[in-house]
Amino acid sequence: MTVLSYIVLAVAAIPGIYYLLALYSSARFWSQERTPPDSDYTPPISCLKPIRGLDVEAYENYASFCRQDYPEYEILFCVDADDPALPVLEKLIRDFPERRIRLLFGSGRSAINDKIARLVRLVNEAELICWSSPTATSESGLITSEPWPRLFAILKLEGPLVCMSLPKRPPSSRNCNRSG
Predict the structure, then answer these.
(1) How many helices and strands (H and E) does the chain possess?
(2) Which of 10, 78, 119, 131 has the fewest CB atoms within 10 Å, measured from its CB?
(3) pLDDT band at 96 (very low <50, low <70, confident <90, very high)
C-alpha cells in the first residue's frame, strides 16, 4: 500500500470513529442515575407586558395575571404616559396592592418596531422573564398550565430567561382591536 492509500483510509475512518465516540458518550450519559427534579423550586418570574392602546376587556385581561397561583412574580407594563390604557393600569395597581406591579413609561429608544423596543426595556428591568402577548390572558395558560415552572425546576434556571406564551386559540376580533 502506498502513503496515499493510508491517507485515504484514515480520512474514510474518521466518520466511523466519530460515530463510535457518539455511541459511547450516549451510553455513558443514559446510564448515569438521575435525581428527580425538585418540584418545589419556583424562581421569581417577571411577566412582561408591552402595552399600546386600550383593548376591549383590558382590565380583566390584566387582572387575570394578578390572580396567578404562583408564589413570587412581578408584572411589568411598558406604556406611554399619554396612552389610554394608563388609567386602567393605575386602577389595577390600586386593586391589587399585594402584587408587585411596575409601570415603565416609553421604550426609551427609537426603533422600527416599538413593541420590540418596549420589550428590550422590559427585559432590562426584569429578573426572570416570561413574556406574553398583549392579547393573552392568564386563562390562556401563561404561568399555571404552561410548563414554565416545571421547566425552571428541572433546569434549576437562574438569571434571565426569555419564554414566550402564545394564545391556545386564534384571538377573536373582540379582544384584538389593537396589539401593543
Answers:
(1) 5, 5
(2) 10
(3) very high
